[in-house]
Amino acid sequence: VKPAETDVSILPVNHSSGICNVVTGTDIFHHIPRLLSENNLEGSACIVSDHTVAQLYEPAIQTCLANANIVTLPSFVFRPGEKSKSFSTLKRLLSHMIKTGMSRNDFVVALGGGVTGDLAGFAASIYMRGISYIQVPTTLLAQADSSIGGKTGINCPQGKNLIGAFHAPRLAICDLKTLDTLPLNHIKNGLAEIIKMAVIGDPECFIFLEKYAGLITHPEHRDKLEYALKASCQLKCQIVQKDEKETGIRTWLNLGHSFAHAIECSVGYGKLLHGEAVALGMLAAGQLAVKLSICNPIDVERIRSLLILVGLPVRLPKMDIQTVSKCMMLDKKNRFGKLRLVLPEQIGTVTIIDNVSVNLIETSLHKLI
Ligand code: NAD
Ligand code: GLY
User: What is the distance between the alpha carbons of residues 52 and 289, in angstroms, rounded to a whole number?
Assistant: First the structure.
């Protein structure tokens, strides 16, 4: 039995380039042909995916495209992992697109996690000065975060996401059924971003997460995850719509991220999942906010308890705190001489603080030992 039509939520996001409909639900691939036609996606399609995801979901997407009378060009499939978000994979992808004869009327289908979405979206942004693409995110992180908002890009040896473009997808289809095959640590990885969104601006969702924290990662309680994901997507869509190019409130989405990037860099990339680092970063930001008397310690304790309940880390792995603070201060140089941090004020609101001292950063990190 297919889920009722109402099980599909459609959130239209207004981008400068047009509307992107973010569609969320469980077992919703059968809606894809209709969604493609309603969103005027015609021409031929090229699926971009990593090997793991291609093996699991490419045949189903091929069928959807065929049912929509869309010609499927040969797919581009790459090695899974962050390393593929590189110039060399991008170059191979662009050559593939040229070889298959993709035209400006054709579109790319980014089928996979955030790596696939960022890579395929960036290729679509520069191929023939920009062609359409759709996102079919298959990790919770990609469904909650990276498939929404049009940030695309690749890494380079000097840093993550240094090369990229804002290029909004035409459609994002977030099917929670794909999470059935996703390892538990990646469910928790995405949950960290959902918790982050609740701290930024959705106290009700935070309470919901507290209530179901022990169940939400279990496959038999997908309805709880679906509720939280939809709430999170809704808030992200609202923020992106108000500030697409991150000149204002979209910065809020970086809550915990300056700490997280520095922690990831200090401990060595790949040792922690990004969501795990975001959990630690969010807590460090909370401790800093308490120190500055911006936030009540009770709220930070609530964040800590929720992270523990869902199985995210709340203590730093063995590492040198000074290395982390140095990393953050290096980041400072990149940002016009100021270290800008997003800090929680309470569950549901955040604020932006400039010029935080190294001392305070280190004190906050020490609280996580
Ligand atoms: P990922 O794309 O590498 O996916 C993680 C792993 O899960 C991969 O090995 C993949 O093969 C596997 N996988 C994906 N879906 C699966 C499924 N349904 N079943 C089984 N295995 C599956 O990583 P990610 O965590 O999804 O994304 C991380 C990337 O997202 C980073 O590069 C980050 O910079 C980027 N990101 C971008 C934005 C944005 O706004 N553009 C936001 C947040 C993160
Ligand atoms: N993930 C942060 C953003 O989309 O702005």
Answer: 41
- How many angstroms separate the alpha carbon of residue 291 from the centre of ligand 1? 34
Is the pLDDT score of 340 beyond 70?
Answer: yes
Tracing tokens 């990790």 back to the chain, one arrives at 139
- Check pocket membership of 230 for ligand 2, CB cut-off 6 A: no
Instruction: Write down the pLDDT at residue 166.
Output: 98
Q: Any residues with CB less than 8 A from the CB of 238 and at least 6 apart, and which?
A: none
Nearest CA to ligand 1 atom 21: 182
Cα–Cα distance for residue pair 30/262, rounded to 1 Å = 42
Q: Is 246 a catalytic residue?
A: yes
**Which protein residue's CA is at the shortest distance from atom 42 of ligand 1?**
146
Please, are residues 90 and 115 in contact by the beta-carbon 8 Å criterion? no
Does residue 302 have an active-site annotation? no
pLDDT of residue 213: 98
Over range 140-152, report the average pLDDT. 98
The model carries a pTM of: 0.97
